Amino acid sequence: MEGLTRSFGKEQVLKGVDLEVEKGEIFGLIGPSGAGKSTLMRTLTGYLAPSGGEAEVLGRPPSEFGPKERRRVGFMPQGFVLYDQLSVRQNLSFVAGLYGLGFRERRRRVREALEFVELWEHRRKAAANVSGGMKRRLQLAAAIVHEPELLFVDEPTANLDPILRRRFWEEFRALRDGGHTLFVTTQYVGEAELCDRVGLLSGGELVAVGTPEELRREAFGGEAIELVLAGHPSDLAGRLKALEEIGRSVEVRQEEGGSGEPESRVRLLVDDADLWLPRVLASLDEVAVRSADVPKPSFDDVFFRLVEKTTRAAG
């Protein structure tokens, strides 16, 4: 995508999106409801034409896709779009037929897809008689029954319980490990952790793109090392000065330990916490270190920080 825009009347929903998704990765598009995630996906799958800019999927504009290109793409929408009166297996066989699979190949792929989402034993049940979670898994089976190279998945875990959400992501990783590329949208910001790379979308604009760790560093200016040291901060002045030469920022506050003795909680900001932690501990060789931790901020905090930084820059 280069400068991709999409408007509905006077309302511009996508505002100049630049993005490239790599083959064989799970790319997660994260953002709150109304950010433009579904509009972007519908544009990439050819359901909507862009108002401006360019988009290519598998080397061609989605609006120019023919049957050959559509066979290489799978799409799992938010809502249930299959037939309640048909059985689970009949629904999948119908979809496989739409993609041109012959009888023998269709039978094989229907079974494989239903076994993959753990619905084979429910194959004879009418879709109307299975749970909401099963319907969502049936939608995923329908999206992969024709073995697409690229899979678009629009908010697959919305309103699901945490166990089912985790199961979906396990299935997504299995698909990626099998050579598929996945483009997944979600309003659950914490699911960014489960993606190979992440784009944060807010108000129709890409706030940031990178791996989860890269976005953490961008949001907070680095990674934190948190230490609890024995002693009052005033007694540790020399050691704290040594830490200032390692990290860009040092925060110290006094606390009272379990035995009533003073302790110092130190927060140090570095580029790579795992790399610098041994050097930090070596600089404190004569100080009793009660604990050392490398905290990982939640992605809710990461998203908030990045959106806030973008808003300040725009202002």
Present the secondary structure layout.
Layout: E1 2-8, E2 11-17, E3 26-30, H1 37-44, E4 52-54, H2 67-71, E5 73-76, H3 88-98, H4 103-116, H5 132-144, E6 150-154, H6 162-177, E7 181-186, E8 197-202, E9 205-210, H7 212-220, E10 223-230, H8 237-244, E11 249-256, E12 262-270, H9 273-282, E13 289-293, H10 299-314
Parallel strand pairs: 3-7, 3-8, 5-6, 6-7
Antiparallel strand pairs: 1-2, 1-4, 8-9, 10-12, 10-13, 11-12
What does this entry look like structurally?
- The protein has 315 residues and is of the alpha/beta class.
- It has two domains: 216 residues, Rossmann fold; 72 residues, Alpha-Beta Plaits.
- The chain has ten helices and 13 strands.
- The longest helix has 16 residues.
- The radius of gyration is 25 Å and the shape is elongated.
- The two termini are 26 Å apart.
Major pleated sheet: 6 strands, mixed
CATH class wording of the largest domain: Alpha Beta
What is the count of β-strands?
13
For the largest beta sheet, what order do the strands appear in spatially? Answer: 5-6-7-3-8-9
**How many domain modules?**
2
First and last CA, distance: 26 Å
Give the ordered list of helices and strands: EEEHEHEHHHEHEEEHEHEEHEH
State the CATH architecture of the largest domain. 3-Layer(aba) Sandwich
Q: How much of the residues is beta strand, in percent? A: 25-35%
CATH topology assignment of the largest domain:
Rossmann fold
- Spans where pLDDT lies below 50 across 5 or more residues: none
How large is the count of helical segments? 10
* Mean model confidence by pLDDT: 89
CATH superfamily of the largest domain: P-loop containing nucleotide triphosphate hydrolases
Over all CA atoms, what is the radius of gyration? Answer: 25 Å
